[in-house]
């Protein structure tokens, strides 16, 4: 397909998508369900924040992932506004390769986010199992992340946490970017917060220079390298050593890398932002027309019409075998509504 035709079509798509986002962003989040409406099947993950459960509506068959955030933890870590922003962004997002909020509710102890259950597992797990991805598979996944970044950036949101652990695969083999904890709506402004995963941090974050969407494109370069090599380009035991390598911009391409993937990575992992693909005058177009993507039908990727090179093994939409096993423990309860004032309004 003519890449220019795709670029024109996608621009129209983005304009409509931004309008829908704005409408949703301005709308209050309504609570239409409670925990009693769901049957808990098993635990999918745990952390200091709370836990993620596999559930389904008692009056339905579709499985969901229920993320339960402990209000006490959110307040103690001073993440109230941050968490409200994450929930509202998830509620307003509507894009094929981004996780969307299906339902939201609160109880006395938890904030509860109900999302589609994406049961192919984390990209991280499959990358460790396969050691590295083929360049065909790397290209397929990269294209979806590129489109997701274009959508976010057009809306004025910087993601800031790209890594294999934050990418889920669905049972068809397509991906969903998840975890919007570091998302921030900045428009054309700069932000200075130090956040992200050490190996994926852009030089401008480390150097406290102020940044915008440039950091997402840098992290994409790191992801492309890690998918195709099986390890990240900047690695050391100590975070400070990692930061020194990142700021120097020096890395060694894997010996099996093709000429086109080497070239694409070299244009994205540019310490000098005036030379970095993704943030130059033509934006994402520089990435999309690169020889690495030669012959790729971007519209077919967006419409999920391409046969994925790899399909995770699943036994149906409710199968959780691609996730680790966790001992089941009772949910916390409280006789009164904890921190009701802090979470009374989901507005800014």
TrEMBL record:
One of its GO terms (cellular component) is cAMP-dependent protein kinase complex. One of its GO terms (molecular function) is cAMP-dependent protein kinase activity. PROSITE patterns: AGC_KINASE_CTER (PS51285), PROTEIN_KINASE_ATP (PS00107), PROTEIN_KINASE_DOM (PS50011), PROTEIN_KINASE_ST (PS00108). Residues 38-293 form the Protein kinase domain. Keywords: ATP-binding, Kinase, Nucleotide-binding, Serine/threonine-protein kinase, Transferase. Belongs to the protein kinase superfamily. This is cAMP-dependent protein kinase. It comes from Henosepilachna vigintioctopunctata.
């Amino acid at each position: 397909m003519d890449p220019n035709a795709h670029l024109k079509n996608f621009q129209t798509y983005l304009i409509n998508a931004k309008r829908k986002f704005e409408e949703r962003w301005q709308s209050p989040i309504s609570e239409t369900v409670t925990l009693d409406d769901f049957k808990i099947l098993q635990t999918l993950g745990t952390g200091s924040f709370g836990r993620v459960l596999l559930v389904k509506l008692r009056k339905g068959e579709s499985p969901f992932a229920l993320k339960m955030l402990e209000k006490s933890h959110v307040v103690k870590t001073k993440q109230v506004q941050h968490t409200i922003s994450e929930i509202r962004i998830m509620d307003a997002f509507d894009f094929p390769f981004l996780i969307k909020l299906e339902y939201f509710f609160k109880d006395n102890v938890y904030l509860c986010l109900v999302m589609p259950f994406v049961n192919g597992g984390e990209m991280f797990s499959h990358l460790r199992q396969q050691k590295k991805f083929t360049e065909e598979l790397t290209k397929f996944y990269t294209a979806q992340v590129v489109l997701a970044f274009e959508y976010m950036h057009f809306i004025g949101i910087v993601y800031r946490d790209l890594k294999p652990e934050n990418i889920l695969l669905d049972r068809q083999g397509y991906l969903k970017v998840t975890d919007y904890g570091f998302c921030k709506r900045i428009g054309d402004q700069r932000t200075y917060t130090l956040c992200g995963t050490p190996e994926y941090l852009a030089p401008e974050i480390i150097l406290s220079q102020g940044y915008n969407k440039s950091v997402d494109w840098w992290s994409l370069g790191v992801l492309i390298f890690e998918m195709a090599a099986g390890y990240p380009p900047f690695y050391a035991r100590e975070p400070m050593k990692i930061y020194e390598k990142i700021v120097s911009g020096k890395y060694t391409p894997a010996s099996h890398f093709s000429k086109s993937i080497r070239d694409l990575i070299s244009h994205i992992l540019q310490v000098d932002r005036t030379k970095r693909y993704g943030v130059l005058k033509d934006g994402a177009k520089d990435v999309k027309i690169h020889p690495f993507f030669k012959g790729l039908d971007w519209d077919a990727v967006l419409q999920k019409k391409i046969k994925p090179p790899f399909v995770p093994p699943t036994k149906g939409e409710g199968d959780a075998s691609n996730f680790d096993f966790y001992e089941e423990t009772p949910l916390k309860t409280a006789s009164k509504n904890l921190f009701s004032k802090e979470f009374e309004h989901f507005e800014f």
